[in-house]
Amino acid sequence: MKSSFTLFALVALQQASSTPLSKRQDFSNIQYPPGTGGDLHEYPPGTGENLHEYPPGTGENLHEYPPGTGGTPPNCPPVGNPVIPFTSTFRVLATPDQVVNGTTNPVFTGGLEGAQATYDFGINVDLDLICYYITLTGFRGEYQSPARTATHVHEAARGRNGPPRLAFPNPMGDGDVRTSVGCMMGPFTTGLIQNGQDTGTGFRVQQIQDNPAGFFADVHSSLAVPGAARGQFPG
């Protein structure tokens, strides 16, 4: 389909070609008003035309760029290399049917119907750093968890329960789609105390990279406190 600009140009061209020459405007003898620049032999001083030298500070022909202009900063990362080189990446799809409750004899709860989350993680084990892009849809109720937030990575195999090792900012946003984006670097805390210490104490992202199947991501709702949606790391 032609753009509106193309259609407009075609109509204008058609109108111009259909106008008799006797009715078309003659532009050959127009007198330009004084000072407009028509047929000037010299441009007014300071306009920059035909200058032998550019005024100081304009940046022309400078051997070095002034500080703060952005010309090749000394600490600029090499071109073509990522700013954060991840040693591993994971995508986790969390759904209600994977949520379980209990530790001794866990049972599937069904989670929160309609809720779904996608967790994209990038890990750098040397920096003990994890970056995340979390997208949550179909969530209802309020975020609820004894931990600092209600969005976590827990340590447990599929169908089992375990303590949260990482607590992420809860996804936020208008409408049905909520997101949470950022990076965290160890040492980690979750705000949940078990056996006298935080469940994030001593945890390193190396553990996820070494055994991804032993971890899952989830989000908790006041309408489904054990979990609204849960997903196992692939591995």
Characterization of the model:
By secondary structure, the protein is mainly β. 9% of the residues lie in helices and 29% in strands. The longest helix has 15 residues, at 4-18. The radius of gyration is 32 Å and the shape is elongated. The protein starts with a helix and ends with a strand. Mean pLDDT is 79; it is low at 1-24 and 70-81.
Which terms would index this structure?
235 residues; mainly beta; four-stranded antiparallel beta sheet; 12 strands; elongated; disordered N terminus
In short:
With 235 residues, the chain is mostly beta strands.
What is the share of helical residues?
under 10%
Q: How far apart are the termini?
A: 47 Å
Mean pLDDT: 79
The strands making up the biggest β-sheet line up spatially as 1-4-5-8
The SS-based structural class is mainly beta
Count of alpha and pi helical runs = 2
Proportion of strand residues = 25-35%
Shape: elongated
Flag low-confidence runs.
1-24, 70-81
What order do the helices and strands follow? HEEEEEEEEEEHEE
According to DSSP, the number of beta strands is: 12
Largest sheet: 4 strands, antiparallel
Work out the radius of gyration: 32 Å
